[in-house]
Structure to design on (756 residues):
């Protein structure tokens, strides 16, 4: 089997005394849809932030397509404070800013929608084509890049087409209903040409019909763009429906992993979600 | 429709050529004109009239236009009853008296004619739009030029137009940073100071240096660069300082830029007055005797080109990235936009144009002294940006002219103690202008928070849409 697209090794993120992610090791293979679930505050979003460079994990490593993109060990004050369970520290330090990681082919959406508020739907997606530009400031200002500009616009329109928002392209992004704003976030992420797509609660706030449609939509774009998808979601129906594998975390720690059927009946998972496990 | 347009365009072009031709030949035709005004040759017998006429011809002979014009005016006024002045003569006289304006007007008609033909025959919408913009710019420049020739180069109106153009450039540059990139900087006066000084230092003519740098043995620099080169250097110097400031400050997540730039502006003002730098900056003495504005068209042209470049950049993919950073840094970064590089770009460019603005301000003031570039100047420009609307270029331009006109001109009367009859109007005395001005600005900021334009731009097509809708444009489907 080929190497995994994403490979986390002992990733630990500690804020002051709180260990939000503790010794998380996991991997995702090419063109898999993998879900990360867990109760509120379990550390799911923090894990995403560690992968995308928003946070530098306190300890651990992240490989993307075999390339080490994040590697850190406790430093400074954290040397004494460190409370993670994994006590071995990698030697090298590798830090990448989020824009660098996006350029490598990892795109994401946000749990609390982060659209560009003053921009139209189309402009929101168009901005996401900026990272692959070949023009510099001068050629762009003097309009010597009109060929590239046209390609950018076409690409953005294609993405809007793909998520079915083409007919609202000139509306203000924030004027869209909730569900469409989430789709727009996905379109914007797709416009960066990712190979790995991270979705943070894409169905949040949706009703059951919308959620089911979203599931089909995610599978659709996975096929169409040959994506690997890493998904955080609370809607269990959706997770069980579309995931190839599932990781479950609670209080930052991995408590279970497996295919949907295994997770459904796992007593630890039920305890984590319901507080007690009743036979 | 096409034929109609073509005919009008042809008429315009013929008119234009006629105007330009008559103004060019007016000087040569003046002697003949004098003959025609006086068909019976009364001047031959009337010695007073003869003398007046001779003054005109003398002026012509010496090629002294001012003298000729003055003589002509006296001749026409003094002997209006004896001279025969028909419409043909009137027109030719007018052409001679207002030669440059006529040529400018002719040029305008010529451009109008060409644009009209373009709109009739050219199928490319972009070319037609470009044509209309060229026409508008020609209207602006010709209008300003004719105004300058009629009301005089040193009138209040011209002062306001010159300073307004400079402030427009500086305000748009500040808007690029504060309004479009969401970075709050308070260093505008500092960058303008650098621009003004660099311009002055490099453009003072070599012969004048001994006099200007009298306390510093003629100064260190003993060469002089052309005006436009000096202006470009002024921008580059300001940009360089911005780059140095941005290097540490723009990497920080929180917004320390405001504090850093404010501090920088204060320090640089002291540094430029430092005696040790005297051979270059002339210490705390004035810099003067450098090239200044000869016509209002110069600041209009330089500021216009700079603002055009900024506008083009804001509407390019880089401008979109700036706006993304303003709207949401975290999302922008997740879209692959490098925050540091783009902030640095915006900051350096904004400062470059502030430096160019500073150079223009030096030309406007004719002297430069570091003392004048205080934080108050930065606040003035910030106010213009806020009043015009954060994120609106046209708003900044409009607000600049309004602000300069109000503060330098329209509210001047408030500073003069005024007596009407026996009644001394209360409150009107030196300094009251600033009180009223502050109240007006507070009112604008309180009740008109978005500024004049919000983050919208003035646009011809929107204006046209509004008009056609107003006239029941629904039928025009
Ligand atoms: N920047 C931060 N500073 C301090 N604590 C943080 C920070 N970010 C997250 N945390 C803490 O880390 C823990 C995990 O938060 P996280 O947002 O990752 O949870 P989550 O699994 O995404 O929850 P939810 O399902 O509610 O989105 C929480 O206790 C939170 O308070
Ligand atoms: Mg979360």
């Amino acid at each position: 089997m080929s190497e995994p697209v994403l490979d986390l090794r002992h990733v630990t993120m500690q804020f002051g005394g709180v260990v939000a992610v503790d010794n998380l090791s996991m991997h995702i293979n090419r063109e898999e849809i993998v879900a990360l679930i867990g109760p509120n505050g379990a550390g799911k979003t923090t894990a995403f932030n560690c992968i995308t460079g928003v946070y530098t994990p306190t300890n651990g490593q992240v490989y993307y397509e075999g390339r080490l993109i994040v590697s850190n060990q406790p430093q400074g004050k954290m040397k004494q404070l460190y409370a993670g369970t994994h006590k071995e520290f990698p030697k090298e330090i590798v830090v990448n800013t989020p824009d660098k990681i996006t350029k490598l082919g990892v795109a994401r959406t946000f749990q609390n929608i982060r659209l560009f508020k003053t921009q139209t739907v189309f402009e929101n997606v168009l901005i996401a084509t900026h990272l692959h530009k070949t023009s510099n400031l001068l050629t762009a200002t003097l309009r010597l890049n009109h060929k590239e500009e046209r390609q950018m616009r076409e690409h953005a329109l294609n993405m809007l087409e793909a998520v079915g928002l083409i007919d609202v392209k000139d509306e203000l992004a924030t004027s869209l209903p909730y569900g469409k704003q989430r789709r727009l976030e996905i379109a914007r992420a797709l416009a960066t040409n990712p190979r790995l797509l991270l979705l943070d609660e894409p169905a949040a706030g949706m009703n059951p019909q919308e959620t089911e449609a979203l599931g089909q939509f995610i599978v659709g774009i996975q096929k169409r763009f040959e994506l690997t998808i890493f998904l955080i979601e609370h809607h269990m129906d959706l997770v069980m429906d579309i995931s190839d594998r599932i990781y479950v975390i609670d209080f930052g720690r991995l408590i279970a992993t497996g295919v949907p059927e295994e997770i459904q009946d796992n007593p630890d998972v039920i305890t984590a979600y319901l507080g007690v496990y009743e036979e | 429709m096409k034929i109609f347009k073509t005919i009008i365009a042809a008429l315009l072009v013929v008119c234009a050529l006629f105007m330009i031709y008559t103004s060019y030949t007016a000087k040569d035709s003046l002697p003949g004109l004098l003959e025609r005004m006086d068909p019976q040759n009364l001047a031959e017998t009337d010695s007073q009239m003869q003398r007046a006429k001779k003054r005109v011809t003398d002026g012509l002979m010496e090629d002294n236009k001012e003298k000729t014009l003055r003589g002509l005016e006296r001749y026409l006024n003094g002997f209006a009853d004896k001279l025969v002045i028909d419409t043909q003569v009137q027109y030719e006289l007018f052409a001679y008296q207002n030669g440059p304006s006529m040529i400018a007007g002719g040029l305008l008609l010529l451009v109008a004619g060409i644009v009209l033909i373009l709109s009739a025959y050219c199928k490319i919408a972009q070319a037609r739009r470009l044509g209309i913009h060229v026409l508008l710019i020609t209207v602006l420049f010709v209008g300003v030029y004719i105004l300058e020739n009629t009301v005089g180069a040193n009138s209040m109106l011209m002062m306001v137009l010159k300073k307004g153009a400079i402030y427009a450039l500086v305000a748009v540059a500040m808007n690029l940073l504060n309004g479009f990139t969401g970075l709050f900087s308070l260093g505008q006066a500092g960058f303008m100071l650098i621009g003004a000084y660099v311009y002055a230092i490099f453009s003072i003519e070599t012969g004048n240096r001994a006099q200007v740098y009298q306390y510093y043995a003629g100064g260190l620099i003993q060469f002089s660069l052309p005006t436009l080169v000096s202006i470009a250097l002024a921008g580059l110097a300001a940009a360089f300082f911005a780059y140095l400031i941005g290097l540490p400050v723009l990497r920080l997540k929180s917004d320390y830029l405001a504090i850093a730039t404010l501090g920088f502006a204060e320090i640089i003002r002291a540094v430029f007055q430092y005696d040790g730098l005297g051979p270059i900056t002339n210490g705390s003495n004035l810099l003067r005797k450098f090239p200044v504005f000869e016509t209002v068209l110069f600041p209009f042209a330089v500021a216009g080109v700079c603002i055009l470049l900024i506008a083009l950049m804001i509407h390019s993919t880089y401008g979109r990235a700036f706006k993304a950073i303003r709207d949401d840094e975290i999302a922008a970064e997740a879209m692959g936009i490098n925050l540091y590089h783009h902030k640095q770009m915006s900051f350096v460019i904004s400062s470059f144009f502030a430096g160019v603005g500073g150079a223009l301000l030096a030309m406007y003031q004719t002297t430069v002294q570091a003392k004048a570039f205080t934080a108050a100047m930065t606040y003035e420009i910030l106010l213009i940006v806020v009043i015009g609307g954060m994120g609106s270029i046209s708003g900044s331009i409009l607000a600049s002219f309004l602000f300069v006109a109000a503060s330098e001109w329209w509210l001047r009367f408030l500073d003069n103690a005024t007596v009407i009859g026996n009644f001394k109007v209360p409150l009107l005395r030196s300094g009251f202008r600033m009180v009223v001005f502050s109240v007006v600005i507070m009112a604008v900021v309180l009740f008109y928070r978005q500024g004049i334009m919000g983050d919208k731009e003035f646009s011809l097509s929107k204006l046209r849409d509004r008009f056609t809708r107003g006239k029941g444009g629904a039928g025009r489907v």
